[in-house]
């Protein structure tokens, strides 16, 4: 079987589109859907996102901070205080997302919706 045949795994999917939902902290939302705060588009206030693929599978992603931990938007220690400002602002990006399982994602969304740190700790335990 040739890899260039019409039924090959390596076909281009030009008409395939993915649906992405963006999640944020309660109080920073554009709208609330089923008790979960959401944003209309991706920006600096998006802390989690869910991608619904063309084959109806889902990919769950949570934003990481500069030290590669799940981001806590409630933290009183931000990038500009403490530590090396140069490392935090230039060398280490806090715009990375990590793919996680559905359980960790659900717990992180509960944290964003309730601002209860125990949900964040549960999500961290599931991921790390």
Task: Report on this structure.
Strand 4 (48-52) and strand 5 (58-63) form a beta hairpin. The protein has one domain (19-74, 82-127). The protein has 128 residues and is α+β, with helices and mostly antiparallel strands. The chain is 24% helix and 21% strand.
Q: What is the strand content?
A: 15-25%
Q: Poorly predicted ranges (pLDDT <50, ≥5 residues)? A: 79-84
Shape: globular
Work out the number of β strands: 6
The structure class reads alpha+beta
Helix content, binned percent = 10-25%
Strand order of the largest sheet: 2-3-1-4-5-6
Query: How many discrete domains?
Result: 1
Please give the radius of gyration in angstroms: 18 Å
Q: List the helices and strands in order.
A: EEEEEHEHH
N-to-C CA distance: 42 Å
Number of helices: 3
| Biggest sheet character | 6 strands, antiparallel
What is the arithmetic mean of pLDDT? 83
Task: List the defining traits of the structure above.
128 residues; 3 helices; single chain; alpha+beta
Topology:
Layout: E1 19-23, E2 31-33, E3 36-39, E4 48-52, E5 58-63, H1 85-91, E6 97-100, H2 102-114, H3 117-127
Antiparallel strand pairs: 1-3, 1-4, 2-3, 4-5, 5-6
Quick overview:
The chain is of the alpha+beta class and 128 residues long. It has helices at 85-91, 102-114, 117-127, and strands spanning 19-23, 31-33, 36-39, 48-52, 58-63, 97-100. The protein has one domain (19-74, 82-127).
């Amino acid at each position: 079987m040739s890899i260039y045949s019409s039924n090959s795994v390596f076909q281009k999917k030009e008409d395939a589109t993915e649906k992405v939902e963006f999640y944020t902290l309660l109080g920073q939302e554009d709208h609330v859907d089923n008790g979960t705060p959401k944003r209309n588009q991706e920006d600096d206030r998006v802390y989690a996102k869910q991608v619904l693929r063309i084959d109806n599978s889902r990919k769950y992603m949570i934003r990481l901070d500069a030290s590669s931990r799940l981001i806590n938007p409630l933290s009183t220690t931000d990038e500009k205080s403490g530590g090396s400002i140069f490392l935090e602002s230039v060398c280490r990006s806090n715009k990375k997302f990590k793919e996680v399982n559905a359980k960790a994602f659900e717990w992180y969304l509960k944290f964003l919706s309730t601002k209860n740190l125990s949900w964040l700790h549960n999500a961290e335990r599931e991921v790390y």
